[in-house]
Specification:
48% helix; alpha/beta; 422 residues
């Protein structure tokens, strides 16, 4: 339960009224970061407009028209005005809208925006963070360049802005506004606003809660989308040099409010609402991304009974759940291992059984062969014995002087000759 806050009066000077000055000095020392995403077809003057906005030359190279997919090119610049330092990052969508099939043109942009949010979230979740020195690359403002056709938005424009309106601050711009008349331009603006409203596309609205600029911001919201012109040429008009575009029929001045809305854009984007764009990016779009990602990771502010749940409790719950999942996986792996072992044992037993059967067959065959050779050996021994007996008889007869003659025919009859095939 929150304690009641009491209001007290001071009896003298304390000094904490210098906090705004301290904050200003600290901010000036650390500098500021601002990131702009430019979306639009090649040749709509994105680079030229940015050169005009920051009154410098970023030396952007012309983009080709033959890319097979959309590429995002990021460049960071260090700018200084008076004693204020600004680290400006400009991200260009090279090849946007140049493909025959434009259905996937928004995906690289969406992935890039999410990747910058993810990088900031990962830095934020580190145990040892370096947030003061971390280069924040989250997109603070998206300048969406609309082709000045005078007929309304293209389907790719509506689709892309619809996909991005809950991730970045979209400021729609009608580029090269000097190509259509004022009457056509006003009708074009009305048609664009009507199409955005019909398709529920949310663009950035300049805030009206600051009394100092609320009236200006509210009036400027009615001028959206801004019709802008950019130029890198300085032309003498009267007694001064101005950014302008020279045509045979006259001169279009970039900073002349009767010619275009460039001054309104610069006033709203840089001079009045740059900090609000940074704050909206962090407090609205990044917080939405962070909430979604943490919920995907399993974190929540309340438990199943809708009771408050601390971050530590959530971590402990996730660790317990993770431990349980590991145990279940371990048990499942054990069961699979046992099953595979049993299958392998069955295979080995079957193989052993086959080997034993083959062994018995070979043993029986060997026994038969052995008996066959033993019979053959006995037969040979009998023949040798008979031969020796006959030989002995013949020798005895020769010694006794017997006149009986042992003819070869008689010997042949007495000797048994057997042929046994092996």
């Amino acid at each position: 339960m929150h304690e009641k806050v009491r209001n007290l009066s001071l009896s003298g000077a304390v000094g904490f009224d210098s906090l705004p000055d301290q904050l200003v000095n600290k901010s000036l020392h650390g500098g500021f970061t601002f990131n702009i995403l430019c979306i639009g077809e090649t040749g709509l003057g994105k680079s030229t407009l940015l050169d005009s906005l920051f009154n410098t030359n970023f030396n952007a190279h012309p983009s080709p028209h033959n890319l097979s997919s959309v590429k995002l090119k990021s460049n960071t610049f260090e700018l200084q005005e008076s004693n204020v330092q600004l680290k400006l990052t400009i991200v260009d969508t090279v090849g946007y809208g140049d493909q025959i099939n434009k259905e996937e043109s928004f995906k690289p942009i969406l992935e890039y925006v999410d990747s910058q949010f993810e990088a900031y979230l990962q830095e934020e979740l580190k145990i040892q963070r370096c947030m003061p020195s971390y280069h924040d690359t989250r997109i603070h403002a998206c300048l969406y360049f609309i082709c000045p056709t005078g007929h309304g938005l293209k389907s790719i424009d509506l689709l892309c802005m619809k996909k991005l309106d809950n991730k970045i601050n979209i400021i729609p711009l009608i580029s090269k506004a000097d190509t259509i008349s004022k009457t056509e331009l006003q009708k074009f603006k009305e048609r664009i606003n009507q199409e955005l409203a019909n398709n529920h596309v949310k663009i950035y609205q300049f805030p009206g809660d600051d009394d100092a600029v609320s009236e200006l911001n509210v009036s400027m919201n009615s001028h959206l989308p801004f019709a802008v012109i950019g130029s890198n040429e300085l032309i003498r008009v009267g007694n001064k040099m101005v950014r302008a575009r020279q045509y045979p029929w006259g001169t279009v001045q970039v900073e002349n409010e009767t010619h275009c809305d460039f001054v309104k854009l610069r006033e709203m984007l840089i001079r009045t609402n740059m900090e609000d764009l940074r704050e909206q990016t962090h407090s609205k779009h990044y917080e939405l991304y962070r909430k979604t990602r943490l919920e995907q990771m399993g974190f929540s502010d309340v438990d199943s009974d809708n009771k408050p749940l601390s971050f530590q409790q959530t971590c402990e719950k996730k660790m317990a759940l993770h431990h349980q999942e590991l145990q279940e996986k371990e048990e499942d792996m054990k069961q699979q291992f046992i099953l595979r072992v049993k299958e392998k044992e069955a295979q080995l037993k079957e193989a052993e059984k086959e080997l034993q059967s083959k062994f018995e067959q070979m043993k029986e065959e060997n026994t038969r062969e052995k008996k066959k050779f033993e019979d053959y050996q006995k037969m040979l021994e009998d023949d040798i014995t008979e031969f020796n007996r006959l030989k002995l008889n013949y020798s005895t007869q020769q010694l006794s002087g017997s006149h009986h003659t042992l003819s070869l025919g008689t010997l042949g009859k007495g000797v048994r000759v057997r042929r046994i095939g092996l």
